[in-house]
């Protein structure tokens, strides 16, 4: 199987607009809302969602960036040490309704690590999850509240999200995992 594009730039734009509307509908008091993007691609997605919410609801939403490197449950098995990025949360998380934003939901382990990192910062009122792609294969009982696209995939495939902010283009593709990476 070769690389197959499953979302174009226009698809991503429409999807983020829909998710922004869903966030507004679910959160009646959006003044208490905080969007937190997980490094790397969750951060620009959170910023885009916040811009859409501002356009639709005429209210500016705070956006933060979260690094989960030191909260991963596979730190001891990683051959390379993780690259620690910055966590930048512009306001207290106490009492806030937080929408955690990531590009792909897979096993749920990264989301668990992100929730641990957020709880270490304070006591949010609630934590919701928004993802661009949900590919299944959960290992933990975690589900997204807002899903751009459900994309069931094989463990022998990878979902590759590319965003203008980090990659120069907006596109989501499904690609085969090279045989030397299978089983990782």
Write the layout of secondary structure elements.
Blueprint (H helix, E strand, L loop, with lengths): L3 E4 L1 H18 L6 E6 L3 H16 L4 E5 L30 E9 L3 H13 L4 E9 L11 E5 L6 E6 L1 H4 L3 E6 L8
Parallel strand pairs: 2-3, 2-4, 4-5, 5-6
Antiparallel strand pairs: 1-8, 7-8
Helix pairs in contact: 1-2
Can you walk through the features of this model?
This protein has a single domain (4-70, 88-181), classed as 3-Layer(aba) Sandwich (Rossmann fold), CATH 3.40.50.2020. 35% of the residues are buried. The protein is globular, with a radius of gyration of 16 Å. 28% of the residues lie in helices and 27% in strands. The strands form two sheets. It has a five-stranded parallel sheet. The chain is α/β, with parallel strands linked by helices and 184 residues long.
Radius of gyration: 16 Å
* Inertia-based shape: globular
Number of domains: 1
Largest sheet: 5 strands, parallel
Proportion of residues in β-strands: 25-35%
Please give the CATH architecture.
3-Layer(aba) Sandwich
**Helical proportion, percent range:** 25-40%
Distance from N terminus to C terminus (CA atoms, Å) equals 19 Å
Determine the CATH topology: Rossmann fold
* Total number of beta strands: 8
Low-confidence stretches: none
The top-level CATH class is Alpha Beta
Enumerate the strands of the largest sheet in spatial order, edge to edge or round the barrel: 3-2-4-5-6
Average pLDDT confidence is 92
